[in-house]
Design brief:
Helix content is about 20%, strand content about 30%. The chain contains 3 helices and 7 strands; from the N terminus they run E-H-H-E-E-E-E-H-E-E. A 5-stranded mixed beta sheet has the order 5-4-3-7-6. The radius of gyration is 14 Å and the shape is globular. This is GreA/GreB family elongation factor. InterPro entries: GreA/GreB_C_sf (IPR036953), Tscrpt_elong_fac_GreA/B_C (IPR001437), Tscrpt_elong_fac_GreA/B_fam (IPR023459). Pfam families: GreA_GreB. It comes from Salinimicrobium tongyeongense.
């Protein structure tokens, strides 16, 4: 891990806490597992103001280039659930892949439980789109 902790911006941290509180409503095993892992990881995160966020940390609206466990390189944008569109490579922050990546940095490797089991994702590049999360998007 590039930084000693996962780094989350304050507003995004609140959004993630709210999403975790809905965990009991979901029946999908991989999704529940992702939410539970995120819940544990959020116990030991560094929460920072927007102006303190490192540019290479994945957050909502980041463009993320990853290498999958299947040696496929793809770029995705992590978005709020309403903007999710897998055909346009926009992954919801609450999808297992989005949950796996949020708060990690360029160069990190992340192990996460996916529907096909635990896999390692390599984060090759992180780019900020410039679009900041608005309060009304929470």
């Amino acid at each position: 891990m590039k930084y000693s902790h996962i780094i989350i911006e304050k507003k995004e941290f609140e959004l993630l806490k709210n999403l975790i509180s809905t965990e009991s409503y979901y029946k999908d095993k991989a999704y529940k597992s992702s939410l539970n892992k995120l819940k544990k990881e959020l116990e030991d995160v560094k929460i920072v103001d927007n102006n303190q966020m490192p540019e290479d940390v994945i957050r909502i609206n980041s463009l993320v280039t990853i290498q999958s466990p299947w040696n496929v390189t793809r770029t995705y944008q992590i978005v709020v659930p309403e903007q999710s569109d897998i055909r346009n490579n926009k992954i919801s922050v609450v999808a297992p892949m989005g949950l796996a990546l949020i708060g990690y940095a360029q160069g990190d490797e992340v192990e996460w439980e996916f529907p096909m089991g635990t896999k390692t994702i390599q984060i090759l590049e992180v780019e900020q789109t410039g679009k900041k999360l608005k309060l009304e998007e929470l």
